[in-house]
């Protein structure tokens, strides 16, 4: 056989092995390699039933036991501590509690495939109901009595005669290709003594046909083992269906905390959303500025820290005037002149006091008054040179701004402190369409972190600010930790009313395309996205005006997590 034919045979073997591997990868349990892939379904057989009170999902596990999940139908809230009685085709089966709101049963009727009629009797407190359901037991699940492990899968694989047949064919094909690829001794042509083979030839790389022949059995073996590995992968997981709906099994719903409400139509006031920010109440706050240019000195105990509480009139800092050299020399000259005048006046008072019987009392009192005036003038001039002025708090509250540093030179009217009362805060917002906020029936706000705020309207400004009407609101109950300058979204309610479905704001999420959607729950484990048109009501609720029917079960909690399922 020539090397070309040997290479061709090797490639044919590789192609057969690859085709077998590809065939086994496609033809796994559930459909053949020539079928179209069906939509994803739950891995385990399951049945569901519901009434106005309860919703039940029964899942047949790999251990042939029936796992039962019980919830409230309207709210999807798990029910723990309920009493369940179950019958399978009329035969009573015991049901035990396996965990929080999880129950388990071991019916012997699941040993054979086929449909099973289930009837559940549920008692939760004073509520009682009967739920019928039908469970289709497949042949694969009926033959499973215990969870499969690696040893069981290997034993089942070895019991299959096709495995031994494919293994034998693979072994023969590998031996044949190895035999054909082995080197043969050729007769000498001209040389009497053969030249020694180079060292590289003895230890060179294995020829391609021999390496390919060794890969064929490995490819065939992997192709045979692939279905077993694929069947061991967990399939009961959240996933998005081809029709756009989302499958979320009950255990995952418990972890995510999925909750629902029944959609009911109602009337609500039409609202408008505008942007704003938190400001301090001007009647309970103050700004402390430097009364003159000078150097800052701390009071006894140091400067008050940021966030500390101060009282009105409390000394926050001292300002020592700073004079230029020319100004200082002028003040010192005035002091020297005043000292001379004081000495003259003091001598005159002493002289007149010694002549008390010879001069009138009026002259003595005038001399003393003149001396006192000179002393007061000197004290005033000296205080401007070496004195200091107190910087006091203008209101009682908490320091929100501290710009004072010891030794700092400040100008007159430079802000040093800001005092805010944290229990009295306002919100200032701007509306670019004055007609929308012409009549305000109520208002609320929500921070960027989702914290709602109840507001009362104070007033609107007549002067436009950046082509917008300023509006001011008072926060009724200020939550702890709210800071001045926090951006908020203000929802202004008008007297006009509109009909729709009221939902919590977290029920509305964004789709990958950017549109607003809600998730309807038509089944126990199926969620369908519904595009909707909404209007804001307040910081916690919205009004769905289109896209949702009355009576639908809508997800109100964990909708954002369901939207992330791929």
Automatic annotation (TrEMBL):
Coiled-coil intervals, chain numbering: 335-384
Domain Multidrug resistance protein MdtA-like C-terminal permuted SH3: 501-557
Protein name in UniProt: Multidrug resistance protein MdtA-like C-terminal permuted SH3 domain-containing protein
Domain of life assignment: Bacteria
GO BP annotation list: copper ion export; plasma membrane copper ion transport
Cellular-component GO terms for this entry: cell envelope
Native organism taxonomy: Bacteria, Pseudomonadati, Pseudomonadota, Alphaproteobacteria, Acetobacterales
UniProt KW keywords: Coiled coil, Transport
């Amino acid at each position: 056989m020539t090397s070309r034919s040997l290479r061709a045979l090797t490639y044919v073997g590789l192609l057969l092995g690859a085709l077998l591997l590809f065939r086994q990868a496609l033809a796994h349990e559930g459909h053949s390699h020539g079928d179209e892939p069906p939509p994803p379904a739950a891995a385990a057989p399951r049945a569901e039933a519901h009434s106005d009170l309860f919703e039940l999902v029964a899942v047949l596990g790999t251990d042939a036991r029936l796992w039962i999940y019980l919830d409230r139908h309207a709210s999807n809230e798990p029910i723990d501590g309920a009493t369940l009685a179950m019958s399978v085709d009329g035969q009573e089966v015991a049901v035990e509690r396996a965990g929080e709101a999880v129950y388990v049963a071991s019916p012997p009727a699941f040993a054979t495939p086929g449909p099973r009629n289930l009837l559940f009797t549920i008692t939760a407190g004073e509520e009682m109901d009967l739920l019928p359901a039908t469970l289709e037991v497949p042949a694969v699940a009926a033959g499973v009595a215990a969870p499969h492990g690696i040893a069981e899968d290997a034993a089942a694989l070895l019991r299959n005669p096709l495995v031994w047949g494919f293994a034998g064919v693979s072994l023969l094909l590998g031996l044949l290709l190895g035999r054909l690829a082995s080197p043969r001794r050729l007769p000498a042509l001209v040389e009497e003594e053969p030249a020694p083979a180079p060292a590289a030839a003895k230890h060179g790389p294995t020829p391609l046909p021999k390496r390919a022949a060794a890969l064929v059995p490995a490819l065939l073996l992997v192709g045979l083992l692939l279905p077993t590995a694929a069947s061991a992968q967990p399939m009961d997981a959240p996933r998005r269906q081809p029709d756009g709906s989302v499958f979320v099994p009950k255990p995952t719903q418990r972890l995510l905390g999925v909750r629902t409400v029944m959609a009911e139509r109602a009337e609500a006031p039409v609202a408008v959303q505008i942007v704003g920010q938190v400001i301090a109440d001007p009647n309970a706050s103050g700004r402390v500025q430097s009364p003159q240019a000078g150097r800052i000195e701390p009071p006894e105990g140091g400067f008050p820290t940021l966030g500390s509480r101060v009282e009105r009139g409390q000394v926050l800092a001292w300002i020592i005037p700073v004079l230029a050299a020319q100004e200082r020399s002028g003040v010192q000259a005035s002091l020297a002149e005043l000292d001379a005048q004081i000495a003259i006046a003091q001598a005159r008072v002493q002289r007149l006091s010694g002549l008390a019987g010879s001069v009138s009392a009026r002259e003595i009192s005038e001399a003393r008054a003149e001396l006192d005036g000179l002393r007061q003038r000197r004290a005033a001039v000296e205080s401007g040179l070496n004195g200091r002025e107190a910087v006091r708090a203008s209101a009682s509250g908490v320091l929100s701004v501290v710009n004072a540093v010891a030794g700092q030179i400040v100008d007159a009217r430079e802000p040093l402190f800001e005092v805010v009362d944290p229990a009295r805060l306002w919100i200032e917002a701007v509306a670019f369409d004055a007609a929308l906020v012409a009549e305000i029936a109520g208002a609320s706000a929500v921070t960027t972190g989702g914290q709602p705020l109840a507001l009362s309207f104070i007033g609107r400004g007549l002067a436009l600010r950046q082509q917008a009407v300023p509006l001011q609101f008072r926060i009724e109950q200020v939550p702890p930790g709210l800071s001045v300058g926090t951006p908020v979204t203000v929802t202004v309610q008008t007297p006009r009313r509109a009909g729709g479905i009221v939902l919590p704001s977290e029920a509305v999420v964004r789709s990958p395309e950017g549109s607003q959607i809600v998730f309807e729950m038509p089944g126990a484990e199926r969620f369908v996205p519904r595009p909707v048109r909404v209007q804001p009501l307040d910081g916690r609720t919205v009004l769905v005006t289109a896209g949702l029917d009355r009576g639908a079960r809508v997800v109100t909690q964990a909708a954002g997590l369901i939207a992330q399922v791929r």
